[in-house]
Amino acid sequence: MAAAVLIQNLQKRYGDVHAVKDISLQVEPGQIFGLLGPNGAGKTTTIRCLCTLTAPDAGKIEVSGISVLNNPRAARRRIGYVAQEVALDKVLTGQELLQLQADLYHIPKPVAKKRINKLLDILQLKEYAHKKTGIYSGGLRRRLDLAAGLLHQPDVLVLDEPTVGLDIESRFVVWELLQKLRDSGTTLLITSHYLEEIDALADQVAIIDKGLIIAEGTPSQ
Ligand code: ATP
Predict the structure, then answer these.
(1) How far is the CA of 47 from the centre of ligand 1 (A)?
(2) Residue 131 sits in which domain range?
(3) Which of 53, 86, 91, 133 is at a distance of 20 to 30 A from 71, taking alpha carbons?
(4) In ligand 1, which atom is closest to the CA atom of 84?
């Protein structure tokens, strides 16, 4: 079986800044893989390359065996991306926002309706579905972002700092949801600079610093 994510010798510069010097990693299907590192280590750049949002200078990237660089359209269908900045349009309700996202992925209306209802249920968002997202708390917004990332049923969900800015209670709720997703077969690649987050969630962790992987193993290792 192909790796869920395969990154080999990835490099990316922004002018003088060598954001990613040489990164290789492999995420197995069904794993939560944690990418841990301080601010500016190159985590976001790595996952932006994976999600086709930034072109790397060198290296190979595959999602479920599909080359991200040669076949970005097919790769994008396999990836859900939950960015660091919450990307919600405040005037839409949660339900409307998910419908818009479904339309962007050309998901037929009846299929979208079923999936949206299921996700609202799983992510405990039903009672907020018809409220404008402008009034959502940080934790609710994160959950809606998760729903948006999952709507097209990706093989791999990529989350950049999924709980940054959340209080402890909301953080636990998101952790539980991520564990449930993993248990239902979704592969998760998570960046974080919280040690305890990676410790609680990840099956495998790579520590990244100054554009290089400096250690890799299970959290206990
Ligand atoms: P954080 O935890 O703060 O999000 P990070 O590990 O995700 O950090 P990156 O955002 O990948 O790190 O940044 C790596 C380096 O590349 C940093 O020095 C950053 O300033 C630089 N960088 C990132 N994006 C750009 C850009 N668009 N233009 C120029 N430099 C950039």
Answers:
(1) 11
(2) 5-217
(3) 86
(4) 4
